[in-house]
Amino acid sequence: MSIQLKTLERTVVLEGWTNRVGREALREIFEAYRDMLQQMVDYAVEHSASQATLHRVFYNKFREKYPWLPTRVIKGCYRDAVRRAKSFRELKKRGIAKTGKPVVKSITVIYSDSQDWRLVGGVVELRTHRD
């Protein structure tokens, strides 16, 4: 008899409250992510780049510019950039794209690794560069 084990994955969006220091830390992460994402999306659209190509071109540059940013956030940015570039190219092919190049309007930083967050007593603790 074969036993099949499955992992249940669920994406949860939480509304949260934090103090001034927490807000500043999250704001810094979001600003860095937005900057990285715009550069990567522009490059990915222009060169039809994959995640591996984006890693090769941008990883060292962003490690030097944002040494405090977790590597997993940069790698998540690759995935996001490739998805946005692919979507933009498809819209452009159909003639639906409204601009000549993609514009990053909203962002979502994904902390998918359990090393970066934990649930303690009903409170989500998130690791940032300001621990």
Rg for CA atoms: 17 Å
Sequence of strands across the biggest β-sheet: 1-2
Structural class: mainly alpha
Shape: globular
Fraction of residues in H or I helices: 40-55%
The major β-sheet equals: 2 strands, antiparallel
- SSE topology string: HHHEE
How widely separated are the two ends? 48 Å
Work out the number of β strands: 2
Oligomer: single chain
How much strand content do the residues show? Answer: 5-15%
What is the residue-averaged pLDDT? 87
Stretches where pLDDT falls below 50 for ≥5 residues?
none
Continuous helix count = 3
Q: How many domain modules?
A: 1
Structure description:
This protein has three helices and two strands, in the order αααββ. It is mostly helical and 131 residues long. It has one domain. A hairpin with a 2-residue loop joins strand 1 (117-120) and strand 2 (123-126). The relative contact order is 0.15.
What are the salient characteristics of this protein?
131 residues, mainly alpha, two-stranded antiparallel ribbon
Describe how the helices and strands are arranged:
Blueprint: H1 20-47, H2 51-65, H3 71-94, E1 117-120, E2 123-126
Antiparallel strand pairs: 1-2
Helix pairs in contact: 1-3, 2-3
Quick structural overview:
It comes from Ignisphaera cupida. The chain has 131 residues and is mainly alpha-helical. The protein is built from three helices and two strands, in the order H-H-H-E-E.
